Amino acid sequence: MSAVSINKETLDPPKLEQATDDATTSSASTANEIVLAANEDNTHMKMIIEKIAEKQSRPAKLMPTDMQIKTAEFFKAFIPAVFGILLFLGIWTLLSHQQPILPGPVSTWHSAVELFSHPFHRNSLDDQGIGWNILSSLQRVGLGFGLAALVGIPLGFMIGRYEFMSRMTAPVISILRPVSPLAWLPLGLLVMGAAGPAAIWVIFISSIWPMVINTAVGVSKVPQDYMNVAKVLNLSEWKIISKISFPYVLPYMMTGVRLSIGIAWLVIVAAEMLNGGAGIGFWLWDEYNASNYEHIIIAIFVVGIIGLLLELGLSMLAKRFAYE
Amino acid sequence: MNPTLNETTAAILSKTPAKAAERYVHIEDVGMQFVTKKGTFEALKNINLSITQGEFVSIIGHSGCGKSTVLNLIAGLLRPTSGNLFCAGREIAAPGPERAVVFQNHSLLPWLNCYENVYLAVERVFGSETKVQQEARTYAALELVGLSHAVEKRPNEISGGMKQRVGIARALAMEPKVLLLDEPFGALDALTRAGLQDELMRIMQKSGATAVMVTHDVDEAVLLSDKIVMMTNGPSAGIGEILEVDLPYPRKRLELAENVQYNHLRSEVLKFLYERHAKKAA
Description:
Number of helices of chain A: 13
Order of helices and strands of chain B: HEEEHEEEHHHEHEHEEHH
Helix content of chain B: 25-40%
Oligomer: heterodimer
Largest interface: A-B, 16 and 24 residues
Number of helices of chain B: 9
Shape of chain B: globular
Distance between the termini of chain B: 42 Å
Strand content of chain A: under 5%
Structural class of chain A: mainly alpha
Largest sheet of chain B: 6 strands, mixed
Distance between the termini of chain A: 14 Å
Strand content of chain B: 15-25%
Number of strands of chain A: 0
């Protein structure tokens, strides 16, 4: 909705500007006369007349081109964003002057340039490029989240489809869902005996719930009308799932998946900080211990940007599955 | 279960010796109660009705009189709390493609296009046929309702009238023994409705199918039906009167407007609804 209204707003200004040129300089004689007749203080009236003039003399060359519209839209979206970033950098600079141990934007930038100039170097397990760290974090998230989807989505389908399943699982889910993700870590270490699988376990258990719950809600909301169609057509259970439940539930499911991957990415940093090994969270903690304070800030940005990209990617995927 | 009772009810209703074709759809002493939070609600009581093969029957009554419940019972979507329903000599135990339903709100699946929506039904009923035959059936059904040009469109890309046409095509494509229509044109504007009524009349003439339609539109009932079942108001609604519509086919809307018999039948229905069984405005 908001995107549409922005489009409309951005469409107007270039037209108006050109209309002003047009009315004051050239051809639209009738409009000029009316302008003369009108009270000069009445700027609102003038605006209206200018619009009329624009409508009367509408040769194709005066219409804003697609390029112009796109440029206008771009600036409309771009300028406030730039302003926001500059403000942020300003506050950051001020804070770093107040507290000299906090690296400022400039020193962080230089450090980042150096860091990203060779992201995939590898000297030892503790000294490897940031690229490797990001990749190992993503791999963990992928595994934990993938397993959660594999278990959570079918489970959600069953809970939504069968009242009995819903009642059966409700108490357990209600108790386990609010548990803080890191509370699962010791249990994982205990059972799995290694840091890597324990981190994947934490991601699995904390990101599974949104997928289970959203899928179940979607399935239970399939309109009775569609189920009546299924009954009258006497469709098989498989046809009901593939032609009715699944397409209906897909948008709900995608919301669950988005929430889940957000949680998974939030959790990985914390899990790795406690766990050690490799990964962006571990790296952040490691750089703190090594007093590379610029790198802490770089890590924060990297985590934020990757989280944003994951979210954007899934939003685009979700849009492809929307049927209305 | 007890044939003697069947025969007596049928004899009372039809006043002729009972034949299978005359009791094609047969409703016998049906009562329907719903359990609600406030207690048991008796929607229908002592419903007895026989529908002859090939007949077009309308069920008319004020809103809330349970006419849709009767239709859902025939469809098998509801099970009666007492009494029995039969279709073509067999008890109605569950919904099935032999009793296709055209739903009031069309109930098309929004993620499938018109073709796929109809094909879903064809595939289920004529699964033993070849793919080519099934496709031909789907196209034929869509052509019958005049939608050959919109097969690839999704339901949200077509008008309300067109959606209802697809709903009708889906139901007809199953070649049902009985076509059940639940206020099929209720959500449409008057002009679209008239157009679709004419078309439904043409299609029904062509196919000769048995049909039961729930409606609250008096003109629609008289125009389309061979028999109008008028229901009394609920709770515990029942069949008040049954009106035979003996107007000859093909029926033309404009000619009928000045037809004495048509106007007489129309006023009979109106009298039933607004004099004998008037309902206070809610």
